[in-house]
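Long-time lurker. I teach an intro course on protein structure, and each term I like to show students one example going from raw sequence to a predicted 3D structure in C-alpha cell notation. This year I'd like something fresh instead of my usual example. Would anyone be willing to generate the C-alpha cells for the chain below so I can use it in lecture? Attribution to the forum is fine with me.
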Amino acid sequence: MPIDTLAAEISRFAQNDGPLQTAISPLTLYRSSVKTEPLPCVYGLGLAVAVQGAKEVSQGDQVRVYGAGQSLLTTVDLPVVARVVRADLATPFLCMVLTLDARALVQTAAEMKLPPLSRAMPPGAMSLCEVEPRLLDALVRLVRLLDEPDLAPQMAPLVQQEIMVRLLAGPHGPHLRHLVSSGSPSHHVARAMAWLKQHFSEDVRMDELAASVHMSPSTFRHHFRQLAGMSPLQYQKQLRLQEARQLMLNQALDAGSAAARVGYESAPQFSREYSRLFGEPPQRDIRRLRDQAESGVAELG
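-- Reply from a regular --
Happy to contribute to a lecture. Here you go:
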C-alpha cells in the first residue's frame, strides 16, 4: 500500500491548517500549507507519521528531518524545537500523530516473544524509520475508522493494539523496549523525567534525583543526556519555560507572575532564558501568538 493512500485519507479530514483532534482521542491529524518558524514544544510518548511534505525536529544538538513515508517515535516527554520545512498550497505538509499508552506497551511487550536487546545500541528518546507496509496498512485502517463513528469505539482499540505490536516487533522496537524494560538505564531515566515533569517548579537536587532511581550522579547525567539530548537541569528549565508560556497565553498571567508560578526567583533571569528559547521577550512573544490566533494562523507542534 503506497503512502499516498494514507495521505489521501488524512487530507479528507484535515482540510484546514493546524491540528485536528479526532474522535479517536489518541489520534491527531495535522496540515500546514506553509513552512513554519521554529516552535519550541514538548513531544510525548507517541508516533508521528509524515505522508506529505517534511518537518524538522531538533532535540538538543540532534536534528532530524522526516518526510513522506517516514515515522518519528518519541519514547519520553521531550522538549524539542519543531518546524515544517517543506510545504505549499499545492502539496501541504500532512501528518498523523498517535499517542501511545505506556502501561499498554509494557503489558504488550511482556506478552510477546521478542529478541534480546543489544547493549551496544544507544537508547535515544527518538527514532526515525521508514514506515513498514503492514504498519502503514494498520494506520490507514485507523484513520478510516473516523468514517464509522458507531464502530470506532470498539474497533479503534483493536487497531491501536495491532500498531503497538508492530512497533515493538519492528525497527522502532528496541527504543520502545529500552523504555519499558524494568531495570534498564533508560527505564530509570524515564522515571526521573516523569518525576521532573510533575515537580519542575520545585528546587531539585539532581544528586538526590539520581539516588532516587538508584544511579550515581555521573551515570545519571550521562544516561539522561544520552536519552534526552540535554542535561537534567536543561530539561527542567525547558519544562518551566514551556509552562510559563502557556500560563501567559491561556490564563493571561503577566511575565512576573508566570515566572514565579514555574519556580523562577529572578524575573530578569526568566526573561533572558525565555528570550533565548522562544526568540523574543515574554510580552512580545505572547502578543505575537495572540495576533496569530486572531488572524487564524496556527503553529504546529
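Some talking points for your students: The beta strands are 18-21, 27-32, 39-43, 46-52, 54-59, 62-67, 70-74, 78-86, 93-99, 126-130. The mean pLDDT is 90.
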